[in-house]
User: What shape does this take?
Amino acid sequence: MQLPKTARLVEVGPRDGLQNEQQPISVADKVQLVNDLSAAGLGYIEVGSFVSPKWVPQMAGSAEVFAQIEQRPGVTYAALTPNLKGFEAALGAGVREVAVFAAASEAFSKRNINCSIDDSLLRFEPLMAAAARHSVRVRGYISCVLGCPYEGAVDPSRVAEIAAELIGMGCYEVSLGDTIGVGTAGDTRRLIDAVSKRVPREQLAGHFHDTYGQALANIHAALLDGIAVFDSSVAGLGGCPYARGATGNVATEDVLYLLNGLGIDTGVDMQRLVSAGERICQVLGKDNGSRVARAMLARAMTSDG
Ligand code: HMG
Ligand code: MG
Assistant: This one.
Protein backbone atom coordinates (compact mmCIF):
# COMPACT_ATOMS: atom_id res chain seq x y z
CA MET A 1 0.00 0.00 0.00
CA GLN A 2 1.21 3.53 -0.78
CA LEU A 3 1.90 6.03 1.96
CA PRO A 4 -0.78 8.73 2.32
CA LYS A 5 -0.01 12.29 1.17
CA THR A 6 -1.55 13.82 4.27
CA ALA A 7 -2.17 12.61 7.80
CA ARG A 8 -4.32 13.98 10.61
CA LEU A 9 -2.85 14.37 14.07
CA VAL A 10 -5.20 14.14 17.04
CA GLU A 11 -3.53 15.98 19.90
CA VAL A 12 -4.43 14.32 23.19
CA GLY A 13 -1.86 15.98 25.46
CA PRO A 14 -4.27 18.24 27.40
CA ARG A 15 -6.42 15.18 28.20
CA ASP A 16 -4.48 11.91 27.96
CA GLY A 17 -1.31 13.73 28.94
CA LEU A 18 -2.43 15.84 31.85
CA GLN A 19 -5.00 13.40 33.31
CA ASN A 20 -2.16 11.44 34.85
CA GLU A 21 -0.44 14.35 36.60
CA GLN A 22 -0.77 14.31 40.39
CA GLN A 23 0.15 17.96 40.98
CA PRO A 24 -2.49 20.66 40.57
CA ILE A 25 -2.39 22.36 37.17
CA SER A 26 -4.23 25.67 36.90
CA VAL A 27 -7.01 26.26 34.40
CA ALA A 28 -4.90 29.10 32.97
CA ASP A 29 -2.01 26.73 32.25
CA LYS A 30 -4.32 24.21 30.59
CA VAL A 31 -5.89 26.98 28.49
CA GLN A 32 -2.45 28.22 27.48
CA LEU A 33 -1.47 24.72 26.38
CA VAL A 34 -4.58 24.31 24.21
CA ASN A 35 -4.08 27.75 22.66
CA ASP A 36 -0.40 27.05 21.99
CA LEU A 37 -1.34 23.77 20.28
CA SER A 38 -3.94 25.34 18.02
CA ALA A 39 -1.47 28.11 17.17
CA ALA A 40 0.97 25.38 16.12
CA GLY A 41 -1.56 24.25 13.52
CA LEU A 42 -3.09 21.21 15.19
CA GLY A 43 -6.60 20.80 13.85
CA TYR A 44 -7.91 18.46 16.52
CA ILE A 45 -7.28 18.87 20.24
CA GLU A 46 -8.73 16.71 23.00
CA VAL A 47 -9.14 19.35 25.66
CA GLY A 48 -10.43 17.42 28.68
CA SER A 49 -12.79 14.82 30.13
CA PHE A 50 -16.22 14.84 31.71
CA VAL A 51 -15.63 11.81 33.92
CA SER A 52 -16.06 11.29 37.63
CA PRO A 53 -13.75 13.71 39.51
CA LYS A 54 -13.29 10.94 42.09
CA TRP A 55 -11.76 8.76 39.39
CA VAL A 56 -9.66 11.34 37.57
CA PRO A 57 -9.37 14.51 39.71
CA GLN A 58 -7.10 16.35 37.27
CA MET A 59 -9.89 16.62 34.67
CA ALA A 60 -12.38 18.19 37.10
CA GLY A 61 -11.95 21.70 35.68
CA SER A 62 -12.61 20.74 32.06
CA ALA A 63 -15.72 22.93 31.72
CA GLU A 64 -13.71 26.02 32.75
CA VAL A 65 -10.98 25.12 30.30
CA PHE A 66 -13.52 24.87 27.48
CA ALA A 67 -15.02 28.22 28.50
CA GLN A 68 -11.67 30.00 28.35
CA ILE A 69 -9.85 28.57 25.33
CA GLU A 70 -9.64 30.57 22.16
CA GLN A 71 -11.73 28.59 19.65
CA ARG A 72 -10.10 28.93 16.28
CA PRO A 73 -12.26 28.26 13.23
CA GLY A 74 -11.63 24.86 11.68
CA VAL A 75 -10.18 23.35 14.86
CA THR A 76 -12.03 20.55 16.66
CA TYR A 77 -11.97 20.81 20.46
CA ALA A 78 -13.09 17.46 21.85
CA ALA A 79 -13.88 15.93 25.25
CA LEU A 80 -13.89 12.40 26.61
CA THR A 81 -17.29 11.31 27.95
CA PRO A 82 -17.94 7.87 29.52
CA ASN A 83 -21.72 8.09 29.87
CA LEU A 84 -24.79 10.27 29.38
CA LYS A 85 -24.01 12.31 32.50
CA GLY A 86 -20.61 13.20 31.07
CA PHE A 87 -22.12 13.94 27.68
CA GLU A 88 -24.68 16.32 29.18
CA ALA A 89 -21.97 18.12 31.12
CA ALA A 90 -19.88 18.42 27.96
CA LEU A 91 -22.85 19.75 26.01
CA GLY A 92 -23.45 22.31 28.76
CA ALA A 93 -19.85 23.43 28.36
CA GLY A 94 -20.41 24.01 24.64
CA VAL A 95 -18.51 20.94 23.45
CA ARG A 96 -19.28 19.94 19.86
CA GLU A 97 -17.30 16.70 19.62
CA VAL A 98 -16.92 13.93 22.19
CA ALA A 99 -15.19 10.58 22.49
CA VAL A 100 -16.46 7.41 24.14
CA PHE A 101 -14.03 4.78 25.34
CA ALA A 102 -14.32 1.03 25.62
CA ALA A 103 -11.62 -1.54 26.32
CA ALA A 104 -10.59 -4.73 24.55
CA SER A 105 -10.07 -6.55 27.84
CA GLU A 106 -12.62 -7.14 30.59
CA ALA A 107 -10.18 -6.49 33.43
CA PHE A 108 -9.13 -3.10 32.06
CA SER A 109 -12.75 -2.12 31.41
CA LYS A 110 -13.58 -2.89 35.04
CA ARG A 111 -10.62 -0.90 36.40
CA ASN A 112 -11.04 2.05 34.07
CA ILE A 113 -14.79 2.55 33.91
CA ASN A 114 -16.09 0.06 36.50
CA CYS A 115 -18.14 -2.12 34.17
CA SER A 116 -17.89 -4.95 31.64
CA ILE A 117 -17.21 -4.27 27.96
CA ASP A 118 -20.81 -5.10 27.04
CA ASP A 119 -22.17 -2.82 29.77
CA SER A 120 -19.93 0.00 28.60
CA LEU A 121 -21.32 -0.33 25.07
CA LEU A 122 -24.86 -0.30 26.49
CA ARG A 123 -24.07 2.88 28.44
CA PHE A 124 -22.96 4.54 25.22
CA GLU A 125 -26.33 4.01 23.54
CA PRO A 126 -28.24 6.86 25.25
CA LEU A 127 -25.14 9.03 24.83
CA MET A 128 -25.04 8.27 21.09
CA ALA A 129 -28.74 9.02 20.77
CA ALA A 130 -28.33 12.36 22.56
CA ALA A 131 -25.27 13.18 20.45
CA ALA A 132 -27.24 12.50 17.26
CA ARG A 133 -30.06 14.77 18.47
CA HIS A 134 -27.58 17.57 19.10
CA SER A 135 -25.48 16.89 15.97
CA VAL A 136 -22.41 16.25 18.12
CA ARG A 137 -19.83 14.00 16.47
CA VAL A 138 -18.60 11.01 18.46
CA ARG A 139 -15.24 9.33 18.17
CA GLY A 140 -14.66 5.91 19.71
CA TYR A 141 -11.63 4.58 21.53
CA ILE A 142 -10.67 1.03 22.31
CA SER A 143 -7.99 0.63 24.98
CA CYS A 144 -5.53 -2.25 25.37
CA VAL A 145 -5.76 -3.36 21.75
CA LEU A 146 -2.24 -4.84 21.77
CA GLY A 147 -2.10 -6.04 25.35
CA CYS A 148 -3.66 -5.57 28.76
CA PRO A 149 -1.80 -4.87 32.01
CA TYR A 150 -4.02 -7.41 33.80
CA GLU A 151 -4.87 -10.04 31.18
CA GLY A 152 -1.83 -9.99 28.87
CA ALA A 153 -2.43 -10.87 25.21
CA VAL A 154 -5.54 -9.52 23.49
CA ASP A 155 -7.26 -11.23 20.57
CA PRO A 156 -7.35 -8.96 17.46
CA SER A 157 -10.71 -10.42 16.44
CA ARG A 158 -12.20 -9.20 19.75
CA VAL A 159 -10.89 -5.70 18.96
CA ALA A 160 -12.44 -5.96 15.50
CA GLU A 161 -15.82 -6.89 17.01
CA ILE A 162 -15.81 -3.94 19.42
CA ALA A 163 -14.66 -1.55 16.69
CA ALA A 164 -17.52 -2.71 14.48
CA GLU A 165 -19.98 -2.17 17.36
CA LEU A 166 -18.72 1.36 17.96
CA ILE A 167 -19.04 2.24 14.29
CA GLY A 168 -22.44 0.53 14.18
CA MET A 169 -23.71 2.71 17.01
CA GLY A 170 -22.62 5.90 15.25
CA CYS A 171 -18.96 6.64 15.96
CA TYR A 172 -17.41 8.15 12.83
CA GLU A 173 -13.94 6.81 13.68
CA VAL A 174 -12.38 4.33 16.10
CA SER A 175 -9.00 4.97 17.64
CA LEU A 176 -7.09 1.77 18.44
CA GLY A 177 -5.20 2.32 21.69
CA ASP A 178 -2.04 0.49 22.68
CA THR A 179 -2.59 1.85 26.17
CA ILE A 180 0.45 0.18 27.71
CA GLY A 181 2.73 0.55 24.70
CA VAL A 182 3.70 -3.11 24.40
CA GLY A 183 2.81 -3.71 20.76
CA THR A 184 5.32 -4.27 17.98
CA ALA A 185 5.07 -3.40 14.29
CA GLY A 186 4.16 -7.03 13.57
CA ASP A 187 1.36 -6.95 16.15
CA THR A 188 0.15 -3.65 14.70
CA ARG A 189 -0.07 -5.07 11.18
CA ARG A 190 -1.95 -8.17 12.39
CA LEU A 191 -4.35 -5.97 14.31
CA ILE A 192 -5.07 -3.67 11.35
CA ASP A 193 -5.53 -6.69 9.13
CA ALA A 194 -8.14 -8.13 11.53
CA VAL A 195 -9.96 -4.87 12.27
CA SER A 196 -10.06 -3.68 8.65
CA LYS A 197 -12.11 -6.78 7.79
CA ARG A 198 -14.91 -5.20 9.86
CA VAL A 199 -14.25 -1.44 9.67
CA PRO A 200 -12.82 0.48 6.70
CA ARG A 201 -9.26 1.72 7.25
CA GLU A 202 -10.43 5.31 6.62
CA GLN A 203 -12.40 5.02 9.86
CA LEU A 204 -9.49 3.81 11.98
CA ALA A 205 -6.86 5.75 13.91
CA GLY A 206 -3.76 4.65 15.81
CA HIS A 207 -3.18 5.63 19.45
CA PHE A 208 0.24 4.44 20.52
CA HIS A 209 1.91 4.83 23.87
CA ASP A 210 5.69 4.57 23.87
CA THR A 211 6.40 2.44 26.93
CA TYR A 212 8.59 -0.04 25.04
CA GLY A 213 9.89 2.53 22.54
CA GLN A 214 7.91 0.99 19.66
CA ALA A 215 5.40 3.74 18.94
CA LEU A 216 7.09 5.28 15.88
CA ALA A 217 7.74 1.86 14.36
CA ASN A 218 4.09 1.01 14.93
CA ILE A 219 2.95 4.26 13.32
CA HIS A 220 5.14 3.59 10.31
CA ALA A 221 3.68 0.08 10.04
CA ALA A 222 0.16 1.49 10.34
CA LEU A 223 0.86 4.11 7.65
CA LEU A 224 2.00 1.35 5.30
CA ASP A 225 -1.25 -0.43 6.10
CA GLY A 226 -3.42 2.52 5.10
CA ILE A 227 -4.00 4.31 8.42
CA ALA A 228 -3.66 8.11 8.24
CA VAL A 229 -4.90 9.38 11.62
CA PHE A 230 -2.72 9.24 14.71
CA ASP A 231 -3.22 10.34 18.30
CA SER A 232 -0.20 11.83 20.01
CA SER A 233 0.68 13.97 22.98
CA VAL A 234 2.88 17.05 22.92
CA ALA A 235 6.16 16.45 24.80
CA GLY A 236 5.05 12.82 25.24
CA LEU A 237 2.96 13.85 28.24
CA GLY A 238 0.95 11.31 30.11
CA GLY A 239 0.29 7.72 30.87
CA CYS A 240 -2.92 6.14 32.04
CA PRO A 241 -4.12 6.20 35.65
CA TYR A 242 -5.36 2.61 35.26
CA ALA A 243 -2.27 1.20 33.52
CA ARG A 244 0.60 1.45 35.98
CA GLY A 245 4.02 1.97 34.40
CA ALA A 246 2.61 2.97 31.02
CA THR A 247 4.46 6.01 29.71
CA GLY A 248 2.89 8.82 27.80
CA ASN A 249 1.53 8.74 24.32
CA VAL A 250 4.07 8.97 21.58
CA ALA A 251 5.24 12.60 21.43
CA THR A 252 3.57 14.73 18.77
CA GLU A 253 6.93 16.30 17.88
CA ASP A 254 8.39 12.84 17.18
CA VAL A 255 5.43 11.80 15.03
CA LEU A 256 5.64 15.09 13.14
CA TYR A 257 9.36 14.54 12.49
CA LEU A 258 8.59 11.06 11.13
CA LEU A 259 5.77 12.34 8.91
CA ASN A 260 7.78 15.33 7.68
CA GLY A 261 10.57 12.95 6.75
CA LEU A 262 8.14 10.85 4.72
CA GLY A 263 6.79 13.97 2.96
CA ILE A 264 3.36 13.50 4.57
CA ASP A 265 1.63 16.81 5.21
CA THR A 266 -0.08 17.59 8.54
CA GLY A 267 -0.23 21.40 8.58
CA VAL A 268 1.62 21.50 11.91
CA ASP A 269 4.52 23.89 12.57
CA MET A 270 7.40 22.13 14.31
CA GLN A 271 8.93 25.20 16.00
CA ARG A 272 5.65 26.29 17.52
CA LEU A 273 4.87 22.75 18.59
CA VAL A 274 8.22 22.41 20.34
CA SER A 275 7.63 25.73 22.11
CA ALA A 276 4.18 24.54 23.25
CA GLY A 277 5.68 21.35 24.67
CA GLU A 278 8.53 23.15 26.37
CA ARG A 279 6.16 25.63 28.02
CA ILE A 280 3.97 22.92 29.58
CA CYS A 281 7.04 20.95 30.69
CA GLN A 282 8.27 24.04 32.53
CA VAL A 283 4.87 24.40 34.20
CA LEU A 284 5.01 20.76 35.28
CA GLY A 285 8.69 20.90 36.22
CA LYS A 286 9.27 17.83 34.02
CA ASP A 287 11.79 16.82 31.41
CA ASN A 288 10.51 16.98 27.87
CA GLY A 289 9.48 13.47 26.75
CA SER A 290 9.99 14.21 23.06
CA ARG A 291 13.39 13.20 21.71
CA VAL A 292 12.94 15.51 18.74
CA ALA A 293 12.14 18.45 21.03
CA ARG A 294 15.13 17.68 23.23
CA ALA A 295 17.43 17.49 20.22
CA MET A 296 16.08 20.70 18.71
CA LEU A 297 16.30 22.58 22.02
CA ALA A 298 19.86 21.35 22.62
CA ARG A 299 20.88 22.45 19.14
CA ALA A 300 19.29 25.87 19.65
CA MET A 301 21.20 26.30 22.91
CA THR A 302 24.48 25.30 21.27
CA SER A 303 24.01 27.77 18.45
CA ASP A 304 23.03 30.51 20.97
CA GLY A 305 26.23 29.96 22.87
P1 HMG B 1 -19.01 4.46 38.76
O1 HMG B 1 -18.54 4.74 40.13
O2 HMG B 1 -19.24 3.04 38.36
O3 HMG B 1 -20.32 5.31 38.33
O4 HMG B 1 -17.97 5.13 37.75
P2 HMG B 1 -21.68 5.58 38.95
O5 HMG B 1 -22.63 5.78 37.80
O6 HMG B 1 -22.03 4.56 40.01
O7 HMG B 1 -21.46 7.00 39.66
C1 HMG B 1 -20.60 7.15 40.76
C2 HMG B 1 -20.43 8.64 41.03
O8 HMG B 1 -19.79 9.26 39.90
C3 HMG B 1 -21.73 9.38 41.23
O9 HMG B 1 -21.46 10.47 42.08
C4 HMG B 1 -22.02 9.90 39.84
O10 HMG B 1 -22.85 11.04 39.85
C5 HMG B 1 -20.63 10.29 39.38
P3 HMG B 1 -21.72 10.38 43.68
O11 HMG B 1 -23.17 10.08 43.79
O12 HMG B 1 -20.83 9.27 44.19
O13 HMG B 1 -21.30 11.77 44.17
N1 HMG B 1 -20.50 10.29 37.92
C6 HMG B 1 -19.95 11.31 37.23
N2 HMG B 1 -19.44 12.49 37.62
C7 HMG B 1 -18.96 13.29 36.66
N3 HMG B 1 -18.98 12.98 35.34
C8 HMG B 1 -19.47 11.81 34.93
C9 HMG B 1 -20.00 10.91 35.89
N4 HMG B 1 -20.55 9.70 35.82
C10 HMG B 1 -20.86 9.32 37.06
N5 HMG B 1 -19.47 11.51 33.63
C11 HMG B 1 -17.40 6.16 35.67
C12 HMG B 1 -18.16 5.02 36.35
C13 HMG B 1 -17.37 5.83 34.18
C14 HMG B 1 -18.12 7.47 35.91
C15 HMG B 1 -15.98 6.21 36.26
O14 HMG B 1 -15.42 4.94 36.24
C16 HMG B 1 -15.10 7.17 35.52
O15 HMG B 1 -15.31 8.37 35.53
N6 HMG B 1 -14.04 6.66 34.87
C17 HMG B 1 -13.16 7.49 34.09
C18 HMG B 1 -11.89 6.83 33.86
C19 HMG B 1 -11.00 7.67 32.98
O16 HMG B 1 -11.26 8.81 32.67
N7 HMG B 1 -9.88 7.04 32.57
C20 HMG B 1 -8.91 7.66 31.75
C21 HMG B 1 -9.38 7.87 30.35
S1 HMG B 1 -9.34 6.40 29.32
C22 HMG B 1 -7.75 6.40 28.67
O17 HMG B 1 -6.93 7.18 29.06
C23 HMG B 1 -7.45 5.48 27.53
C24 HMG B 1 -7.43 6.17 26.18
O18 HMG B 1 -6.50 7.24 26.17
C25 HMG B 1 -7.08 5.17 25.10
C26 HMG B 1 -5.74 4.49 25.32
O19 HMG B 1 -4.79 5.07 25.84
O20 HMG B 1 -5.65 3.34 24.90
C27 HMG B 1 -8.81 6.75 25.84
MG1 MG C 1 -4.17 6.93 25.90
